[in-house]
Amino acid sequence: MRKKIIAANWKMYKTIKDAENFLREFLSLSNNYTEKEVVICPPFTSLFLVREYIKDTPYKLGAQNLFWEKEGAYTGEISPIMLRDLGCEYVIIGHSERRQYFGEDDEIVNKKLKSAFDNGLIPILCIGEKWEEREKGKTNDIIIKQINGALEGLDKENVKKLVIAYEPVWAIGTGHSARGEDANEVASLIREIIEKKYSGVVAQEIRIQYGGSVNPKNISEFLSQPEIDGALVGGASLNPQTFWEIVRI
Ligand code: 13P
After folding, report:
1. Which of 13, 85, 104, 156 could make a disulfide contact with 98, Cβ separation 3.0–4.6 Å?
2. 208 in Cβ contact with 164 (< 8 Å)
């Protein structure tokens, strides 16, 4: 049985004070909830604070990005060792915003995934098609290309720990989420690709999230799908009550 996993991606939102206010309220509302895994991915500047707040709770800490080297002269970058040092267990890799604004391609995503695994972090790998690609019927091709590129050279012991977030780019921050069945179809395709590349066991072990305009009203549409094991939540994770509603439902 795959444990459901709900992750909050705060993106570039919240000062330390904002993060503190969120945590006070979320921790009191959620009362050490354990039925699903809950991961909070704040900006780098709040990782230390969030760790301090959640260290005696069941909740996990995640980062939104990393650089693949362990250390070195890479001004402005953050290494996997530093993330581990801060208590991170997860790291989001290949988010469409990183692909769009920071030029991350499948090769970079692959290096980051390898580095995360080598340093004991579990990657949440984001993939998804743009609207033009969906309209042209290219969704499956894009998913296949992104997965093959990202997983190049990775072994099955690592891949079975992976979380894949299917985030159609057109659904991110738009208020237009995918339909549950369509997201489930892509999640099935992801398992087929993993089965071909690795094995049926690995395909059944990896967890697949849906992301893109998730809110308390539509979360059950996704979590009721057989191939979807959770959600990666952006905007709706910024408010403690809304995020708690999503986790609880
Ligand atoms: P929204 O939930 O704001 O659409 O963002 C989704 C997302 O990008 C999560 O990584």
Report:
1. 104
2. yes
Q: Which CATH number fits the domain that encloses residue 123?
A: 3.20.20.70
At 207-228, the pLDDT tens digits run 999 999 999 999 999 999 999 9
Which range of residues forms the domain containing residue 34?
5-248
Q: Rounded to the nearest whole angstrom, what is the distance from the C-alpha of residue 189 to the centroid of ligand 1? A: 21
Q: Tell me if residue 102 falls in helix, strand or coil.
A: coil
Report the mean per-residue pLDDT for the chain: 98
**Total domains in the fold of the chain:** 1
| pLDDT for 246 beyond 90 | yes
Cα dihedral sign, 187-148-140-211: positive
Q: Among 91, 176, 213, 245, which residue has the most ligand 1 atoms within 8 Å of its CB, making it the best to mutate?
A: 213
Looking at residue 11, its amino acid is K
Give the amino acid at 130: K
- pLDDT value at 1 more than 90: no
Q: Which ligand 1 atom is the nearest neighbour of the CA of 175?
A: 4
**DSSP character string of 142-171:** HHHHHHHHHHTT--HHHHTT-EEEE--GGG
